[in-house]
Amino acid sequence: MLPIRRITLSALAFSALLAGPNAFAVATKTDALAAPAPVTAVPAKPKPASTSTADHGKFKELQKNFKTGPEVTEACLICHNEAAKQVQHTKHWTWESVDPKTGQKRGKKNIINNYCTSPVSNEKDCMACHAGYGWKDSSFDFTVEKNVDCLVCHDTTATYRKLPGDAGHPVYKRTEFPKGSGKFVEAVDLRKVAQSIGKPSRTNCGACHFFGGGANGAKHGDLSSSLQHPDRYLDVHMDEKGLNFTCATCHSTSSHQISGSRYNVAAAVKGPAHVRGKEDTVNPASCQSCHGDKPHPLARLNEHTDKIACQACHIPEYARDAIGTERSWDWSQATVMGPDGKPTVRKDSAGRRAFDSKKGAWVWESYVIPDYRWFNGASKFQVIGDKIDPGKTVLINEVGGGPNDPDSRIWPTNVHRGKQPYDKVNLTLTLQHTGGEDDTALWHNYDWQKAITAGMKAGGLPYSGQYGFVNTEQTWPITHMVAPKGDALTCAQCHSVNGRLKEIKGIYMPGRGDNNKLLDAAGWIVALLTLLGVIAHGAGRIYLSNRKG
Amino acid sequence: MSEHIYVFKRFERFWHWSQAMLIIFMMLTGFEVHGSYHLFGFEKAASLHTVAAWTLVSLWVFAIFWHFTTGEWKQYIPTREKVVAMIQFYSIGIFQGAPHPFRPTTLKKHNPLQRLAYLGVLLFIGPLLWFTGWFYLFFGDWKAWGVDSYLSLEWVAFFHTAGAFMMLAFFIAHVYLTTTGHTPTSHIKAMITGWEEVE
Asked: How many domains does chain B have?
């Protein structure tokens, strides 16, 4: 009985995820996933009883009909009086990340990305994925503790939803979403949610991280709702019937600081696996923290680890599902109307967004072979106001590393191409006011000039009034969707002419055609001449002995 | 009239033929790893090449021991005696049916050109392949050995390949020259039975 019910629940949750690709939060019934991950591969087990020492349903502080999110947070902080301060030091709150080497301020707040570009002037929409309440414009006060959103990460009911337009507040009253769709999102029962909190599950993390870029699977390429109920082939660690890891199993967390970040990637982790009790500075969200840097029984494979990231062989393709990922976003197609002069949308044959008059055109792909490149974990990002050269493809992030850098490894990456508006005089990528119901919002009025003028003003940037579109490119390291070992790359997939690593410079690889061509030519000529010599010599002997005989 | 003398002892014959098979096999797998053709597939070729290498190393340990304990190493001491006569024989005499200028004995079983060629194989081509192959095999340990700043895989591979081409050229010539004995098969028979047919 039980397994059948689980499958039904999975199917329901999956269809719920697919049903609302534009929602920044998803309602899924997945409490089985909140269970601690078992360490060995076993068939799916019934949900164990909570191991927590506290039943939040019994706390009198939570026996209240909360009206707003901040009210709940105030109740949480009565006991967890350091929690908000901790969260306020994390990227989930600040949307800012500082490069430890260059001091460059990155993070969603500062960079221009290759998808929705920037939250500036669009906070009401974008902050549906902020772990806070009320960030609607630049006046947001980052010191107010009650504005920290505890529930978005700790809700276990999968009923807590935040929608675009509410600046990070959950749904307080029944709302039609998307507008005009006839579908309604119920008001969140904050009392029930507050009493049912627990450790973050895949549902909590996935509500934002599976849907980055505004659609399921769009952004990363290795994160989509398929990781909610993955099988072994898709993700050997998160396999629901096997190891069943949650995100936090690897992204282990202390004081709300979640390990693992694409801004500072642990690209070249060395040394043995982490041992309990031993002081260790290795990033826990790395393969090596559990497997060490010599995990293979074959020494020859271990020799590869000081040049190649684990991911390069063990993630043979990314977006290994029907959901797929976006390979490009062309903003220059936005505001193009349908044949009837009205805004239109178009989907590709797999039902994924392909065109929208609001946002432009997209290309999707599944089972994508990565682009391989040297990577040392550091990226220089295009931040708001940086000068660009419109004659070249603008690199949203410049990935560091090279063959002679001992801290670089060959990584699989997802290179996402784009076309974005820029200021033709000031030579900067522009900020545009996209979301909203006002006159300047691109998605409301389909007027680039107004949208850019409003966006640049909100960001405090000069705008010449002349815009064009420039090619852009963003590079993502691929690290999720690790395949079972039987699906890892085979030797010849790289060690062959036209293999996976044909573009990788600076190393000698047997079998790739790196051999010295001059030596090869000389060697074969010498061998051939020797052969011809002995044939001629032998023929001479036979001929002469026959004549004599 | 011909007579038979015993030139190759049992171990020597075993060493020769097992080494011959290993070297042929290593050329076959090695040039595949090198990227010259597809036969076993890269992965299998690389792993078979390694297994054969270790087998050959063990064989050489025994062979070196044998050569020194039996004094047979002296067979490879180069000599100038009859070198010119040998060259003349191979380039002229052999076509005229002239007698072989060198008559092997148990104490001097190799003709002077053989001595030079085998010494070259044993002291130059072999060690070149062995030495570069060793570094190729232990690429992952260069850092630990402190040699990573002096070596590059590209050059290790270059010299390993150069050695392989030399071995290939030697192999071709060697196989042919086995037919230049008293009769076309007398050298080969000697390496199989130990007994060489001489004039």
From this structure: 1
Q: Where are the domains of chain A?
A: 325-494
All residues of chain A having their beta carbon less than 8 Å from the beta carbon of residue B154 are 508, 514, 516
> Which chain B residue's Cα is nearest to A302?
B140
Task: Give chain B positions within 8 Å (CB) of A530.
Answer: 169, 172-173
C-alpha distance from B68 to closest chain A C-alpha (Å) = 33
Token duo for residue A127:
């902050």
The 10 Å Cβ neighbour count of residue A12 is 13
Residue A271 has what DSSP assignment? Answer: S
Is the CB of A296 inside 8 Å of chain B's CB atoms? no
Closest-CA distance, B42 to chain A, in angstroms, reads: 6
Torsion sign across C-alpha atoms A13, A209, A437, A136: positive
Per residue in A369-393, pLDDT (tens digit) is: 999 999 999 999 999 999 999 999 9
Contact B95 A520 (CB under 8 A): no
CA distance B155 to B161: 10
Q: Which domain holds residue B19?
A: 3-198
Provide the CATH number for the domain around residue B111: 1.20.950.20
Using CA atoms, how far apart are residues B15 and A515, in angstroms rounded to an integer? 32
Q: At A115, which helix (H) or strand (E)? A: none
- Does the ipTM surpass 0.85? yes
DSSP H helical segments within A22-179, as ranges? 69-79, 83-87, 91-94, 123-126, 151-154
A171-207: pLDDT as tens digits: 999 999 988 899 999 999 999 999 999 999 999 999 9
Chain A / chain B CB contacts < 8 angstroms: 91
Nearest CA in chain B to A526: B169
Phi then psi dihedrals of residue A245, to 5 deg: -65, 145
Cα–Cα dist B46/B35, whole Å: 11
